[in-house]
């Protein structure tokens, strides 16, 4: 599979059975001073990636947040856009998200057609992403805005078939998300089955509030663990969760 530097890093994680940690920053929920603090913590914890974006993006300081982070850290910044307008030339890459778990054509391809010229002109590394929303026991902004029901928490077979379809359609990576503030994080059994039946990098996030859960998700087959909401409440979790994930590097 061809791709840019960051995608190649993702692929190497999968091939070498290494695990990575990504911190998700929502510009709507932080100010520039907080971004600076998070960047310092990410450096100390040796965080692998930073994802930045939000479902609504009410604030207008996306570029400012990215620049503030990059002024303090060399960690790659990847856009996690909630809409086609969330593009910044200051990032390193962009997840081009297709909501393959939903049935809304706008989020499968419609919005992409509209945004394609702008995304292409951005010069960013574009990572085609099969985005799968999994029921986390709480209503999510993504489900509400997309008019799509999430995959049921206990329906591993639906998740596996959806992931396989995304891979066969040519997605570069899969991103399974239980949503911000999920009461039920994605089960290890679902992660394990999806990882077993697909070969592309697997990103998992939503409802991960403890280092142990991050560790177990990696053991189940996740290549990259994403944490956002929990860190917004307690930034010190960055170091604890990073330590748990990176501890697997010597045991797998």
Please explain how this structure is put together.
42% of the residues lie in helices and 17% in strands. It has 252 residues and is α/β, with parallel strands linked by helices. It has one domain: TIM Barrel (Alpha-Beta Barrel), CATH 3.20.20.390. It has an 8-stranded parallel barrel, surrounded by 7 helices. Strand 7, helix 8 (211-220) and strand 8 form a beta-alpha-beta unit. Helix 2 packs parallel to helix 10 (237-246). The longest helix is centred in the middle third of the chain and has 17 residues, at 105-121. It starts with a helix and ends in a 6-residue tail after the last helix. The mean pLDDT is 92.
CATH superfamily: FMN-linked oxidoreductases
Largest β sheet strand count, sense and barrel closure: 8 strands, parallel, barrel
Q: Which CATH class is shown?
A: Alpha Beta
Query: What string gives the helices and strands in order?
Result: HEHEHEEHEHHEHEHEHH
CA radius of gyration: 16 Å
Mean pLDDT: 92
The second-level CATH architecture is Alpha-Beta Barrel
The rounded distance between the terminal residues' Cα atoms is 24 Å
């Amino acid at each position: 599979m061809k791709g840019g530097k960051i995608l190649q890093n993702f692929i190497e994680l999968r091939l070498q059975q290494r695990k990575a940690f990504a911190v998700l920053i929502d510009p709507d929920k932080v100010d520039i001073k907080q971004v600076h603090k998070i960047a310092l913590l990410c450096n100390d914890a040796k965080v692998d990636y930073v994802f930045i974006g939000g479902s609504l993006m009410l604030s207008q300081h996306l570029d400012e947040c990215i620049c503030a982070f990059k002024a303090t850290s060399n960690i790659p910044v990847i856009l996690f856009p909630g809409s086609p307008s969330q593009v910044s030339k200051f990032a390193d890459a962009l997840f081009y998200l297709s909501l393959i778990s939903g049935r809304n054509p706008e989020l499968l391809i419609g919005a992409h057609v509209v945004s394609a010229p702008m995304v292409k002109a951005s010069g960013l590394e574009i990572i085609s992403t099969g985005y799968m929303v999994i029921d986390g026991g709480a209503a999510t902004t993504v489900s509400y805005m997309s008019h799509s029901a999430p995959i049921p928490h206990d329906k591993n077979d639906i998740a596996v078939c959806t992931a396989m379809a995304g891979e066969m359609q040519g997605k570069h990576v899969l991103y399974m998300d239980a949503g911000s503030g999920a009461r039920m994080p994605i089960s290890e059994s679902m992660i394990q089955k999806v990882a077993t039946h697909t070969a592309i990098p697997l990103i998992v996030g939503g409802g991960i509030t403890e280092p142990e859960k991050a560790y177990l998700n990696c053991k189940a087959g996740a290549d990259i663990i994403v944490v956002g909401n929990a860190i917004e409440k307690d930034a010190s979790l960055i170091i604890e969760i990073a330590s748990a994930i990176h501890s697997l590097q010597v045991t797998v």
